[in-house]
């Protein structure tokens, strides 16, 4: 996807996600969070924001036939792909208000796992924690990696400026929640979790397929930029790409984005 046709790449479909953002579930980037999860045979684990199911499948394999793994995602296309990929149980739900799981499953899970999803839960981050709490046994683990403070620095500023210049309020359009350690730790504690480890981890991330333009089309077109026409989006993306080039494009023409991961392990207190 060297040059992008705006119309064909603007949707957040499973296939566009797999094409442009496969790094999200690559072994290189997911080994730390999967190691923190420390799955055992027979465990019951929910994956919040399972996407197309690549990590859910690994967890499903690790818990074995005596365990249970359930994937949840907001996007039905992702759920269909996860099921096609071999995830046995996957359901569509807003992570901020999980309604889908039967009451019989409440307080029955050993762990809630989440990778690269909870930064989309800006509207009600506490709702996510209340859902996790409802599903976990006392002593259950909440193991997560998400965008944290200063994530995507540069791109976010560019989007805010471009949108503001057009007379819109960027804070209202910005769909991302990138909390500090202190903020998320406080939220976890107030929801009844003990925070075992929490850190912010900078991770320079090469944008292989489509560079920054592809990334913006996939992750911002239908969220941050959803109010705009295709023509306006094309102009905004040109502006942001132009602004970010000095820092994010190397001499060989390769783009990288500075991701900052908020990574934590918390335990549900009695
Ligand atoms: C992230 O994984 O940090 C992320 C992905 C898409 C948009 C914003 C952040």
UniProtKB/TrEMBL annotation:
SUPFAM superfamilies per the UniProt record, alphabetical: S-adenosyl-L-methionine-dependent methyltransferases
InterPro entries the record matches: Methyltransf_11, SAM-dependent_MTases_sf
Family annotation (Pfam families): Methyltransf_11
Domain named Methyltransferase type: residues: 46-144
GO MF, one example: S-adenosylmethionine-dependent methyltransferase activity
Coiled coil feature spans: none
UniProt xrefs under Gene3D superfamilies: Vaccinia Virus protein VP39 (3.40.50.150)
Protein name: Methyltransferase type 11 domain-containing protein
